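Quick one - inputs below.
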Amino acid sequence: MAKPVTLSQHLPLRWLGVLPFFAFAVLFLILPTLYIVIGAFRTPQGDFTLDNIIGLNTPTIRNAYWISVKISFWSALLGCVIGFAMAAAITVGNTAKGLRNPLMTFSGVASNFAGVPLAFAFIATVGPAGIITLYLRTEFGINLRAYGWNLLSAWGLTVTYLFFQIPLMILIITPALDGLKREWREAAAILGATGPQYWRMVGFPILLPSILGTMALLFANAFGAVATAIALTGPSLNIAPILLFAQIRGDVLGSPNLGYALAFGMIVITGLANALYIWLRARSERWLK
Amino acid sequence: MSFLTLTHLEKTFGQNRVVKDFTLDIEKGEFISLLGPSGCGKTTVLRMVAGFEQPTAGDITIDGKDVTGLAANSRNIGMMFQAYALFPNMTVADNVAFGLKVKGAPRAEREARVAEMLALIGLSDLGGRYPFQLSGGQQQRVALARALAPRPSVLLLDEPLSALDAKVRVSLRNQIRQIQQDLGITTIFVTHDQEEAMSISDRIVVMNGGVAEQVGAPFEIYNRPRTKFVANFVGTLNTFEVEVADPASGRVTLAGQSLTLPDAPLAARAGETLSVALRPEALRLGRQPDAESLLTAQVTDVHFMGSVIRLKADLAGAAVSLDTFNRPDTPPPVVGSAVEVSLSGRDFILLKA
Amino acid sequence: MTRLFAWGALLTGIVFFLLPLYGMTEFSLRMRRGVYSLDAYRAVLVDPQFQATFGYSVVMALFTIAFGILLVVPTAYWVRLKMPELRPVVEFITLLPLVIPAIVIVFGYIRLYNTSSWLPLTGSAMGTNILLMFGYATLALPYMYRAVDTGLRTIDVGTLTEAAQSLGAGWGTILSRIILPNVLGAVLSGAFLTFAIVIGEFTMAALLNRPAFGPYMQILGANRAYEPSALAVIAFAITWACMGLIQLVTRFSKHERAKA
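Output:
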């Protein structure tokens, strides 16, 4: 007799504790996203359609996605390679352990120094009238522009993104590098392996899921970034987030539902990248447990 | 010349001399344990043999060849680590094959050797598993197979049992010893566990403060420890003060009873006191016909441990431990009772400080 | 060889990091022709727009932090104590803002809470402010939740709660007097990170048309030469201060625990 009473009293009470959180998540995270996703498959009259998704296949939109993917891919790849090299130098390289703490602190700051001010910093440095640009021109007669450099371009944006991508890589991969046990290296050595053999057969394969996973995260990180791009290039650069920004402001595509489809496409791409990240991370954690 | 020689090895880290003038000759096929507390330098000696540390001074030779300056990867040594150190990204079979693979052995040879090694450790059907799918004991057996697969000339064991459960520890210890004897491989085993060292070694090196205090067979180390440190480290010890009666014949007196110590003549004059020691099992309960002397002791504590009963008692002014075998028909003495204890001068151990 | 490579990588990276910082600092000091001066900073600081937008963003950050703490601490505590089976779900939700770009979330807000909807938040300035605050709380959710959850892991939530209950404490008392002080370091870390995120946030504020610091910086950047660099230096200093405070708090709370 007592059991049903406690159940009916305790079950709702238990759920009451997480109710605010779920209410918040549904109202301000899940519903807004669902609204966009559903809108992507609807006509203005509310009927189901695939026309919006098919409608993404215009030169402008295709191009916007493609440039976005390129910028995100290259900034993720370069961020990974440079960040990994720097993290390796302060951990396993036995080279610059004294630089470890300053670099980690700086990475914490720089990975959060994004958005509008980051664009300003790069404009002041390597923009058309930036300090370095002018210095190279007046002192050495080097015209960066003539070498194909333009900060207000896809490559300029890629380089600017590296300012937070590299530190993010350092922050994520340093613990993974610390996780490489000294015994593995010693076991490999005593079994006759050379240094490069150890890295090729043991060290690198162990780190690979972490590296690829972090790269997926960096990709998603760059793909969704809006502020730096707008502050750097204004509305001129045709990338997916800027196109979406303009669409939200003024319906430049001339169809609200096409706008939903554009946003849906972005969710799909960042979602895939993150799913890859989670999957690869679970893999590497399984090994290292 | 011995198979593996360590000659006047020295190692300093900064100001810290962790290994001091360490010399040891090891015969082919011998199982040697380096025994000592943590920080005694035993691991450093092992790591110098492996090639992970460069000696500050001294030489290491293996099979007549000087390997002192040789890198770890060209010494042809096998090693087991405390934390298994299996490569987590490889299957058991790939782990075992690693040493052969880096040497460029053909696939067929590798596969045959892996099968042979897995059979040796009794894990033939686990070749496809990953290390994280194995228990600690299984992982350490794989580590042994991996170390032995490239046919090393020397096997180094760096406390390979200390991370395992008590039961697994004993069975793996016996398995390691069995395989070592079957293969006849020269082995150095580092441990801080005296029981472990005594049960599987041909010889033990007891180390303290970077120095080899005593080298000898387990029986010798236990029964004839040369220093107080060795005596204490390899077992329980009862110490007594005795008065020297006749240094030439080794006669002393303890609580009015006359005893004859071994190792006469004694390096002391008549009337002086000497510090001597006895193992708990050298004190025997009751009147024993072969014993030199009989004393009365006051029982202060009784620990029933199964086949052995350990008593604590006051004997001739000293608190002593004494061991007696359990006998089903005789209950152990009770606390507070007086017991007769037989002892003989020949069992006493004379200790250098 | 390896050493050379390591130093090369480090040096390249450090130069890459330092150049823009040097560039923006140098540029921000060049407003007066021929000499270094703080004119750009002065121009920014006396700008009533700067004062208004910066003040607005600071207030928004503080409200976001307060709301975030009120939302995250009880939830994380409750999930650990009573509903561990919900943990994967809650953790997944808290990570969603890293997956869904902010611009998509705010797009949804604009359509879902417009003037003709069931909850017309964008119909009034106050309503939009509240909506923006919820948006910021969403952006900060992954960081806040992880910080607090990590903090809770280091204390024995169950035992502390039972001990407090046996002494007669209610839920409010337990949360505010027992749990919160014990995870204060973690909460403060999350708070400073939230502050760093909110203070310069651009996308949400711009699309919701709120007079925040991020959009102000962007407009200034489009129209002025030297002031943006001064703003960048100020923004970098704020980020640095927030991260420094996080380190300080972490070190302090570790120290406290070590003493206890």
